[in-house]
């Protein structure tokens, strides 16, 4: 499937999280200190991800099989993220109130490929985080999806190998996706599962790099 179609589906999914909340919001709290949410102004994350040969839709497939990239273009990505909570939307539906968060994550990635020196990758995004899950009293859960820009000081070798006869760009579209889990007694200490997706070589062409990672998220 062409990368542009994948990106369009991701953007639609992101808007599906945001637009209903904007349209149905009875009130919008653009302050981190919204009453009753128990959330924090800032969150800091550290994680490690493996470069994969999977497409972005593979991670949502019931038959998902991890395809880690081996050889010169394989390796790991070490991520460091600071996220600022902008505020909340209030969405009332079916007698229930939902309060998705609006946030801005800024990520520095150290890309450590198997065959060359590590290089840096910079990501800035706008994200929506859902925190209203019925099982939160047992496992505190959040799910975030966003869209933004990414700039790498080097082009990923995995991207070059997939497109040996094409020019690849250092500037890409970034789609951060993550799931957090925490004990209800300690909601600020979160186990993090994330997908770091970057678009193809020229924003919406074919290709892209997808990495699957795990980490720790701490709210302050």
The outline comes out as elongated
Residues in helix, %? 10-25%
Q: Biggest sheet, strands in spatial order?
A: 2-3-5-6-7-8-9-10
Overall strand count = 10
Strand count, sense and barrel status of the largest sheet are: 8 strands, antiparallel, barrel
Instruction: State the distance separating the first and last CA atoms.
Output: 41 Å
List low-pLDDT spans: 1-5
Strand content: over 45%
- Computed over alpha carbons, the radius of gyration is 18 Å
Give average pLDDT, whole number.
83
What's the SSE pattern?
HEEEEEEEHEEE
* Derived structural class: mainly beta
Instruction: Please work out how many helical segments DSSP would assign.
Output: 2
Topology:
Elements: H1 3-24, E1 25-29, E2 42-52, E3 75-93, E4 96-98, E5 101-113, E6 119-130, E7 140-152, H2 157-162, E8 171-182, E9 189-198, E10 209-219
Antiparallel strand pairs: 1-3, 2-3, 2-10, 3-4, 3-5, 5-6, 6-7, 7-8, 8-9, 9-10
Overview of the structural elements:
The protein has helices spanning 3-24, 157-162, and strands at 25-29, 42-52, 75-93, 96-98, 101-113, 119-130, 140-152, 171-182, 189-198, 209-219. The chain is mainly β and 220 residues long. The chain has an eight-stranded antiparallel β-barrel with strand order 2-3-5-6-7-8-9-10. A hairpin with a 5-residue loop joins strand 5 (101-113) and strand 6. The longest helix is centred in the first third of the chain and has 22 residues, at 3-24. The radius of gyration is 18 Å and the shape is elongated. The N and C termini lie far apart (41 Å). Mean pLDDT is 83; it is low at 1-5.
